[in-house]
Amino acid sequence: MSNFLPSIENLRKSSLPAAKRIYSAMDYLEGARSSGGMVGKRRFTKESRKKAKKLRLCATEQKPLNKLERTKEYSQELNSRKEKAKLARERHLAHDNSHRKLRELGQREKRRFNELFSVYALQQGPSFRDSARVVKPKFPVLLNSSKSRVICREKTQNSHHPNLSPSNKLDRDQHD
Hints:
Layout: H1 16-35, H2 46-59, H3 64-124, H4 166-175
């Protein structure tokens, strides 16, 4: 509780004046809250909500003409909801039918192309159906002997010896 309310522990436990002060202070707080003096949310219990709802319902006049109008509006709203649901179902069925037709058309075309291809393959003969052969390119065979200078003949920009590649040039510098 807040600081300005006296607690029973500070006074004697059976003190009637302390209880009166506590309850009067709480009544004061309740009065301030209900009059708008205190800032805070107003809390409703289930019973208070039900009472407020009943009061609002009773506040509207329940004349027979009003009841008839409300029942007509409600039945019209229900009928419109039913119609919307019916149209949505019909649209869904039409959409499914169109997809089914497209699938069947695609399958028919696939079968037709397979038949045409088989006729073409029969006309071309059995060689048409051979699998593709992988042909590896032929690489030049490099000779490992030191006498073959044909492979190494390159003329580089910085080379003084036209017959030596840059790698051979390094080898020659190490020997010199």
